[in-house]
Amino acid sequence: MSRDATVAAKAMVLAAGRGERMRPLTDVIPKPLLEVRGKPLMQWPMEALAAGGFSELVLNTAWLGDRISSHFGPKPLLDGQVALSISYSDEARDFGGALETAGGIVRALPLLGDPFWVAAGDVFAPGFVFTQAAVERFVAGGKLAHLWLVPNPAHNPKGDFGLSAEGLALNTPDGPRHTFSTIGLYRAALFAPPYCAIPCGNPGGIKAPLAPILRAAMDNGLVSAELYTGPWTDVGTPERLAELNRPSQPARLTGSLHAMTTTDTKKIYAERRARLASQLGKDGIAIIPTAPERQRNRDSDFLFRHDSYFYYLTGFTEPNAWLVLGGDGRATLFCAPKDLEREIWDGYRLGPDAAPDALGLDEAFSVTELDAKLPKLLENRSVVWYPFATHKGLETRVDGWLQSVRARVRYGALCPEEQRDLCGPLDEMRLVKDAHEQDIMRRAAQISARAHIRAMQLSARMLREGKDVREYHLDAELLHEFRLGGSQYPAYGSIVAAGANACVLHYRADAAPVRDGELVLIDAGCELDGYASDITRTFPANGRFTGPQRALYDLVLASQDASAAATKAGNRFNDPHDAAVRVLAQGMLDLGLLDANKVGGLDDVIDSRAYFQFYMHRTGHWLGMDVHDCGSYVEPTQVGEVSERKDPLSNELIKNRPSRILQPGMVLTLEPGIYVRPADGVPEQFHNIGIRTEDDAIVTATGCELISRGVPVKADEIEALMRA
């Protein structure tokens, strides 16, 4: 669906249950108010819904329901940021007790509208992202329900529903089944005949479970589903609650909160290593170091950030570590040894004894043994792989280890005869993001979107109050929200450019004043659990666009709409750029930035690249662990297809190859812009205006999902936000 064809959706959070298995805890506290990691259990899905733009909620209550309504009230501001509007369906007051899931939903239908979300208030799924895109896909699909299923937990080994290759939920006793997460999207028609006989509003207070209604609709092919593999817990027993609130394990105490050591994530990293090992050859071996620590000054280092290749294969975030992977799949880690004295100063170390179990590896040794053990690991291998030109001095170290192997050839040892670049196979693996990666990137985009909103609102508020506003004030808001949201660092140096500074593409936030009547361009994103977000918004400092600013802004937004429409599986990487350029070039002619008498018509402008005066960069790049992520922009199957052209501006002879064919799961940015510097013939009303709009897009089979639209992009919406 187009960006304008949005579908409004409310949400229901189920909170009426008694929680019998949680007694005696629930004798005095309703189960959804039990705390998990510092906040009520039901507050987690409520905040996640609000973060996705679904701030109108219905809560059904029964047991100790007054505790829930008095805790949240009608319009809570959760964590000081997330504003909600809550309606209550009090089943205990109206009928003396809970109506079960379907009965409660039908009771709340008059408050919900159509379609609507439902999530249980006693399920913990901190990584689940509620998106408008999901709602629009659901409505377009014509089903009555869409369910999110999860891998079967130990307490439900047989699962609930099957899942077909076409994405249908199956009512089948045979074959593999998954557990229903309790998260779903619904149409009101599911809760009407022939599937449900309860009248809308459930005036009689009829109790009814949800599963039979879903199974009946499944039998008619009217329930779709997908598998969610992020963290998920049905908090049904005191033991599960205690486990969620249990202090972090030692491997999580390094200061790197995104070190992944759960069973599910260990499996993800193991699968990646297995895929890579299969490409090394039977007698191949790969060496992957993490990033070095870098000195900032004297005895102070820069904040350590792992190497992306290394982290992609291990989930390990400590410095001084190496991974050695054999073609047989055997994984060996070298890491910093335990040192209790140093740990007092520098923090906890996992150590080689605990590493194999914590990270799912075969063996681990102290990094002090690296030079002694590497020659033995390389011996009798045919090829050694490592990332070329990424780690200074790595080639020299490999040569040293190989020299040690050659010293043993007289004893029958064989030395690898070939060295190959590991970047190629790893880049191809990283280019298509799996569901786990996409989930993290959605959450990173949500955090970054909230940061942009804070900066926009602060700018307008300070100017209204007559305060001196500087670029660094807005930068501070970004950094605050990044950390408040749980991200580890900015994904890159934030660009906060006021006024004419926005015409400097890689300007950095500094001390320039933010003036009433000028625009501010912010290009900023956080890094969460090793994955980057990258969002740009341009907004009026005082919250109101001038006529010329609005004209250019709408042009850039129209070009981004065109690029998003061209972003889908089967299209080429260059297609979004070409689509954006056509819209921008025509707009430059229409607005008088380009004189048609001098540059000709639209095709002439594109052929001569006359638009380059005002738009001089590409429309996007890959996004992932690195903000400019790895992966070839040339289609691998067509590398040999070369054509030549002469650049009309530089006269350079350029060799062209067909650009990459987009596949589902690829993630790229869409960031057209326009930058008007004073020049002869350029209308003065546009001088010193720089505008860029950037969103993060996950390629899907039919289009793309813009995961960063948690911050407004339409000019009217930005103005409304800044008035708030």
Task: Tell me what the structure shows.
The protein has 3 domains: 10-244, Alpha-Beta Complex (Spore Coat Polysaccharide Biosynthesis Protein SpsA, Chain A), CATH 3.90.550; 250-430, Creatine Amidinohydrolase, Chain A, domain 1, CATH 3.40.350; 432-723, Alpha-Beta Complex (Creatine Amidinohydrolase). The protein is of the alpha+beta class and 724 residues long. Helix 15 runs antiparallel to helix 16 (471-484) and helix 15 packs across helix 21 (715-723). A 7-stranded mixed beta sheet has the order 7-4-1-8-13-10-14. The chain has 21 helices and 36 strands.
**CATH homologous superfamily descriptor of the largest domain:** Creatinase/methionine aminopeptidase superfamily
Number of strands: 36
Amino- and carboxy-terminal Cα gap: 29 Å
Record the strand order, biggest sheet: 7-4-1-8-13-10-14
Q: CATH class of the largest domain, anyone?
A: Alpha Beta
According to CATH, the fold-level topology of the largest domain is Creatine Amidinohydrolase
Structural class based on helices, strands and sheet pairing: alpha+beta
Number of helices: 21
The percentage of residues in β strands lies in 15-25%
Uncertain residue segments: 1-5, 248-261
Shape: globular
Average of per-residue pLDDT values? 91
Largest sheet: 7 strands, mixed
Helix content: 25-40%
Number of structural units classed as domains: 3
Radius of gyration: 28 Å
CATH-level-2 architecture of the largest domain: Alpha-Beta Complex
